[in-house]
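> run fold Peptidase M50 domain-containing protein
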Amino acid sequence: MDSFLRFPLEYIPFILLVAIIAFTIHEYSHAYLADKFGDPGPRQMGRVTLNPIVHIDIFGLVLLVIAGIGWAKPVLVSAGRFKKPRWHGTIVAAAGPFSHLILAFLGAFLINLFNHFDWLNAMSLGGARAIVIFLFYFLSFNLVLFLLNIIPLPPLDGYLIIRYWMPYRFAAKMQKYEQWAPYVFLLLVFIPPLRHVTIDPLFNLQWYILDFYNIPLRWIFGYALDWRQMLM
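> ok
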């Protein structure tokens, strides 16, 4: 059965838990800010909540386990309802990726915390292993989601941020091609020659993000972990 899965079978519960948390926070961030900026749609659709049931797409979770790529139910936003459509629309779109930066930092902080106080050695082997697996997936998964979501292709948030600042005529022309963008994205992810010159270099940015995290973490704990050695 493992041959049909993207991750080892024993890691699937951790992957699902991490994905549910990350996807829920991502979509809630969009919904919460859209609601605050004047769009009643997300609240009317029941999306201004941390209840994962309303945010999770079961098929997206299944595909994540099988193919390594998944998604949640998108929050529909009407930027025309915002007081400042461009600025507020940009903030709402950016909230999703930014939430992953915060979650990834939380993961890095907890890894440092457990390491600093040596809590894992006080636990059973199974309990310590479970925490390590969860935290490292929590950290790496959220970094990947941040980097993927800033890609400027529809329907990703990176494209939405740019679209809010496009001239109207150009945005209207681009809208004709938006339906094809998900297929382009899948080609970039699953075709190795394309991935090597697009997605892979983007993923290398995670090391710079982790180096940035180490600035406050070094101040808090008095040292910095070597993330490259731990995650590669």
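The mean pLDDT is 93.
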